[in-house]
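The material for today's practical consists of a large collection of protein records. An example says more than a description, so a record of this kind follows:
***
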Amino acid sequence: ENFFPGDTVLIPPGIPHRWYFNREKTDADGNIENVAIFFPNDLLTNLQACFPEMCAPMIHISALKDALIFSGETRKEIYSTMLRMRNETPTKRVLSLLEILLFIAQDKTGRVISGIRPLNRQEMRMTQLKSFVNCNYMHEIKIDEIASHIGMNRSSFCSFFKKETGQTFTHYLNEKRISLACELLENEDMNINEIGQAVGIPDTPYFCRIFKTFKGLTPTEYRTSKKVHQ
């Protein structure tokens, strides 16, 4: 789900995640800032062994399997402590982390925003496919190649993808590339040829035709329209 300024989230191990945010809530350069604390799950076990007083709260946190977003006083305390930690010494940060863990253990406001559930075979294949596309969209991707990557032949893959998404793989790939091209047109000072190459469509005339098919405008017209509305 979208996140907003001040949101504070706990993400247990093993939960794939990505952040969505309102692009109107960025700084002048289109950037956002987040503060994150990473710690190994063994820390919770080790704290129990070293400090018997920490057993109950650490067991409670270890049992949390879903991602939680906090509110009220818990959110306020965790948020302010994390901001403060940016300017603390490494030693002081350890104490601040313990404070945060205790805030989480005592919390009654946490709302589940994501959890782990087993993926079926179709979902697993789509996850593999999307990951492959995200890593390789800037290169030529042949249908035989992506089909082999998820363990299918070409014919079975085409039928599978159409059934799962309602569109062809070529349409899906072009739609993704054009979406990425829009971001570059809006935020980067690159020429049209460079943008086409960056998103995996190096033939500039073909890139412009595909772009207009999806957006109803040429890349240049799209960039101009965005500047007019800024």
User: Anything to note?
Assistant: The radius of gyration is 23 Å. The mean pLDDT is 89.
